[in-house]
Amino acid sequence: MFSFPKVSFDESCNTLRSEVRSFLDYQRLNGGFTPCADCWVSAASPEFSQALGAQGWLGMLWPKQYGGHERPALHRYIVTEELLAAGAPVAAHWIADRQSGSQILRFGSEAQKLSILPRIARGECYTAIGMSESQAGSDLAAVQTSAVKNGSGWKLNGRKIWSTGAHFCHYMIVLARTSPADGRNRQIGLSQFIVDLSLPGIEITGIRDLAGSPQQFNETLFENVELPDDALLGTEGHGWQQCMSELALERSGPERFLTTFICLETALPAIAQYADDRRAALIGKLYANLRVLRRMSLGIARLLQNGETPTTEAAVVKEVGTRMENEIITDLRQLLSGIPAKDLPEGFPTLLRDAILHLPSNTLRGGTTEILRGIIARQLGMR
Ligand SMILES: Cc1cc2nc3c(=O)[nH]c(=O)nc-3n(C[C@H](O)[C@H](O)[C@H](O)COP(=O)(O)OP(=O)(O)OC[C@H]3O[C@@H](n4cnc5c(N)ncnc54)[C@H](O)[C@@H]3O)c2cc1C
To answer: How many domains does the chain have?
Structure first.
């Protein structure tokens, strides 16, 4: 029913892991970053992204002719999980490296690949996801943003919402209607566009979130934006299928269960000083659950490398993983109860506070828990 192939690490993986850890130690000690929770969304540092690019740790799977490094999926997995576990500031390049670049590689024209991918791989070019609209979140096929043929290009009109990082991104991959829905089949007539966010007619406005950040995500208005013909990504009318293939990349990675891990990692030395049976049992449970999730997520990395589209498996990892992120915080509160504040590491209260304030987004972004359960139930033949 579900496939999570077993993956094992060879010597090259262990070497790479040591290299990434040394790099992160160096960056931390030399002011490169202060660890934070939810780092792949909350902490953007173009300097850090470019440093990763210089190491060859972005675009790792892509062909060399497009600036990539032709490394195995497992190597990319190791780099991403080490960055997340360290709470490193990876938000600037995250979406571009994880999904938009791969989308362009898969569906883009030669000119699009040559122009955009090398810049992403250098950590210099960032992208946003332009799917959601105020009336089209879970019901994505209801998007009303339209792109109409206009001479040799397209005219784009509409309004996207929750566009993470759009205010610093260079491009947004926009899902727009290019022809009317075919009766009840609303998935027909949608197309994807690579929209240069510096074009006239685009207005990006920050939305303040619960954690107080004034512009982590945005509302993006497109008013008579003139797109060149080659802004179309892939095939006209195939936007829905293209978006769906993107979701396996978006939902299956270690960012779907490691968002709050840095809090646990940072608190562990203090917890160890107060070790008892109750704490040992809780840590054991968290460890076991994380091992299982990692095993599943690694299996998906292998499936993706084999060219498969494991949409349902990715839904399972996101559904279980984002619940796990909440569980880490709930259990951490119990683990810390009775430990004096003076024994906690410096900066820990801020780290924990930010993680708690970001928790509600984990089970929403990238598809809500209810929607994921629907996908899983369908695969199991239950609906
Ligand atoms: C932090 C954050 C970052 C985001 N970043 C981006 C981004 O960069 N780009 C982008 O395009 N979008 C982004 N999103 C949007 C995200 O994908 C949507 O919020 C999500 O798909 C849910 O859509 P909605 O908010 O419109 O909620 P709705 O679809 O209105 O859902 C509201 C509630 O109803 C439930 N519900 C809806 N339909 C059903 C159903 N059929 N069965 C059962 N329950 C249902 C949902 O589970 C949810 O609990 C982001 C969201 C967040 C929170």
So the answer is: 3
Let me know whether 164 and 188 are in one domain. Answer: yes
For residue 299, how many other CB atoms are within 10 A of its CB?
20
Q: What domain range is 162 assigned to? A: 129-238
Whether the Cβ atoms of residue 161 and residue 132 lie closer than 8 Å to each other = yes
> What letter represents residue 45's amino acid?
S
**Which element (helix H / strand E) includes 314?**
helix 311-336
Same domain, 265 and 369: yes
Per-residue pLDDT of the chain (383 residues; tens, 9 = 90+): 788 999 999 999 999 999 999 999 999 999 989 999 999 999 999 999 999 999 999 999 999 999 999 999 999 999 999 999 999 999 999 999 999 999 999 999 999 999 999 999 999 999 999 999 999 999 999 999 999 999 999 999 999 999 999 999 999 999 999 999 877 789 999 999 999 999 999 999 999 998 888 888 999 999 999 999 999 999 999 999 999 988 888 888 999 999 999 999 999 999 999 999 999 999 999 999 999 999 999 999 899 888 888 889 999 999 999 999 999 999 999 999 999 999 999 999 999 999 999 999 999 999 999 999 999 999 999 98
Mark whether 163 and 275 lie in a shared domain: no
367 alpha carbon to ligand 1 midpoint, in Å?
6
Where does a domain end: 180, 204, 238?
238
**Do 78 and 103 sit in the same domain of this protein?**
yes
Decide if 250 is catalytic. yes
Find the catalytic residue in 82, 250, 255, 319: 250
Kindly give the distance from the C-alpha atom of residue 140 to the centroid of ligand 1, in angstroms, as a whole number. 9
Q: Are 44 and 92 in contact (CB under 8 A)?
A: yes
